[in-house]
Amino acid sequence: MASVFASRMGGILVSLIFIPIYTRLLSPAEFGAVALLLSLQAFFLVSDLGLATILARDTAIARGDQVALAAATQDRRRGEMMVAVLVMLVALVALVVIALGGGPDILRDGIRTIVSTALVALLVLLNISQLCLNALGHYRLTGLLTTSGTLARAAVSAIVLARVEASVDAFLWSQFFVAALHYATTRAALDQRSGAVPHNLAQLLDRAALIRLLVRCKPVMVYTLGGAAALNLDKTILATLLPIRLTGWYFLAATYAMVPIGILSGPLNQYFAPRVAHAEASGDTAARWRLAAAFQLLLLPAVVLPAFILIREAPLLIPLWLHGTPNAPQIASLATILLAGTAVGATGYYPTTFLIAVADNRFLARLSAISAVIVLGVAAAWAAAGSLIGVAASYAIFHACGCIVQWWRLRQHWSRIQYRTFLLTCYLMPAAAMLLVCLIGWALAGMFATGWARAAIEATVQLLLGGGAMAILSRWCYRRSASLHRPILA
């Protein structure tokens, strides 16, 4: 599991170290444009027809079976071809629009469009390769490749901005070249560990196989598109309705709010997702229970404890992170609201993982599409009214409601007694214990110290008490499940 955590450190270091560097090297308007570019990259990264989810799940299930793994590898190559074709079509449409619009910078805009779409394609294909490599169980290698590639991309971009040219185009080109090298390395490592599967153009272009893959991806595509739109198009809306420098503020607040997910809960989900899928496919109910309990009991302290500290200490941490940026108080106000919502939403990672594992894709697609339309509409209304606080609050509510609905859906797959037992022992009681630990740490730290000393004491108390509480609850949870004389999961 340490390797999975390490694989996320590159993204965290980019957020903590390189994003503030970009803010200093670029003007507010240019950084707003870069923030918009990064958010659009994140949107298109998961707008992959649902291929990353489906292909990683197939690879996890096929692990250890060379015949099944060969079929999964062929499907992965078909998926890569689909992504390439889709991106070329998007680039073609964009170029036609630019040509029809005319203007003095038509050549520059055309080149920028081609490079941007090529970068998106590389990042999408890189994500698929990383997830499939992870699904094969090569966590250490994935962690090494992911961390080194992400840091290299950020560092080269910072060097180019500082030494060559501080512009959006310089940022874009540096990102593109390093991403190409990163993808080539990761793809080669994946092919080497997928077995000797020959490249067969006839099989790759098999119409029936392509149609089957598209049909399987359809509901997942709606789910991923809805989630990607909800989580990333808010910056595009803000850039359209508000001054672009405010988009930069919101981007920084959202980056801060994603720290607990990026460092702790995200890697946990990445580690457990292929195991949950494999256990579901094999029908191993004992393994299902162990994974469900371990996932949830590790997830809660990984979300609640750091989120509470980051919310409490945002006025102290954000100015330090942004090196005295004059807008730090406004960014901190937005970040605390967003962080509360993302923390609640992250506690629903297990239901999401389980629903994907059992292929409840139709429900996930409906939930994603409906929630995306609602939250983007509400966010646009708040942006039109000029309220960033309103936009942040709408997203906090969006995360919380999504968590509640997915926990409710989990009930449809389990018996009543199983669901109630799991909800009580692995969610409600641990969550209450973590909140109590947070309050105790806050009270003790406030009695003896202020500033950084208070934050250090609070974190130490929460770590010690939280670890002890989760150890006790884990033992009680397993004993409670054994008393039922049957697995928790249906």
| Beginning-to-end CA distance, first to last residue | 27 Å
Strand % is under 5%
List the helices and strands in order: HHHHHHHHHHHHHHHHHHH
Mean pLDDT, rounded to whole units?
80
Helicity range: over 70%
Radius of gyration over C-alpha positions, nearest whole angstrom: 23 Å
- Domain count: the total is 2
By helix and strand content, what is the structural category? mainly alpha
Which regions are unreliable across 5 or more consecutive residues at pLDDT < 50?
482-490
Q: Would you report the number of β strands?
A: 0
Looking at the structure, what is the overall shape? globular
Describe the structure.
The radius of gyration is 23 Å and the shape is globular. The model is unreliable at 482-490 (pLDDT under 50). The chain folds into 2 domains: 1-205, no CATH class; 219-490, no CATH class. The chain has helices at 2-25, 28-46, 51-62, 66-101, 106-135, 139-163, 168-193, 201-204, 207-241, 244-257, 259-282, 285-312, 314-321, 328-346, 349-357, 361-384, 388-411, 416-448, 451-482. The protein starts with a helix and ends in an 8-residue tail after the last helix. The longest helix has 36 residues, at 66-101. The chain is an all-alpha fold. Helix 2 (28-46) packs across helix 10 (244-257) and helix 3 packs antiparallel against helix 4. It is 87% helix and 0% strand. This is Polysaccharide biosynthesis protein. InterPro entries: Poly_Biosynth_Transport (IPR050833). It is a multi-pass membrane protein. The chain crosses the membrane at residues 5-25, 31-56, 83-102, 114-136, 220-242, 248-268, 289-311, 331-351, 363-382, 388-410, 422-445, 451-473. Keywords: Cell membrane, Membrane, Transmembrane, Transmembrane helix.
